Amino acid sequence: MLYELTPQFIVLLIAIGGIAGVINTLAGGGSNLTLPALMVLGLPADVANATNRVGVLVQAVTVVRGFDRHQQLPRGDLRAVVWPTVVGSVLGSAAAAFAPTVWLKPALLTAMLGMAALVLLRPDVVAPPPGTTPYRVDQRPSARWVLLLAGVYGGFVQAGVGFILIAALAGALRYDLVKTNALKMLCTLFLTIVSMALFIWQDMVAWVPGLVLALGTMIGGRLGVRLALKASQRALKWFLFVMTLCASAAAMWL
Question: Hey, which of 4, 193, 204, 252 has its CA 20 to 30 A from 211?
């Protein structure tokens, strides 16, 4: 596997990873920055897709611990929330390992444009009014299918999976955006573990750039948790809106 990891590129990967860590914690779409960076380094699209998961995994662990430490990770329905994403991730990762890489861009673009339309036309879906009581998964069975879809998509291509998880957690289950982001990152953690196992088995991970990127995403994830805890729901909603538009634009050019 040929790539040139110069000192300049190490600094760039850490910086991009940091920015992506903040974006992924507060909204989603950070992989729209990290995937092109890895491909510019010289990694093929499928190897970049697999290598990117190293940073996502480290970031997810950091963010989940941060939210849990501040008691913003709802524990009452964790198993029912996580399992559909894990099952979906197995299916999506298998598809990513064996499907033609030409499918990555259409999948990414479809997800981004769908979420952009949802934020534009139905902003209340992804930003429930203050004081809304969340549902359990067994009270909203349709949420299982959205979580399953998020797992399939996240296993196939990481970029943008946060938006689909937000649609399930805030839209279907009506969690506020702080708790939605906490649960989103927990789901991301588990689906990334599944996809990483398959990609490692297929020897598709470039570990050196992956770990460099992980350093940046860990730093960005910690900063993202602090920002999420201090920001208002209105500010988080607008950040989500802007990031959705940016991710939609990025998906067209990736």
Answer: 252
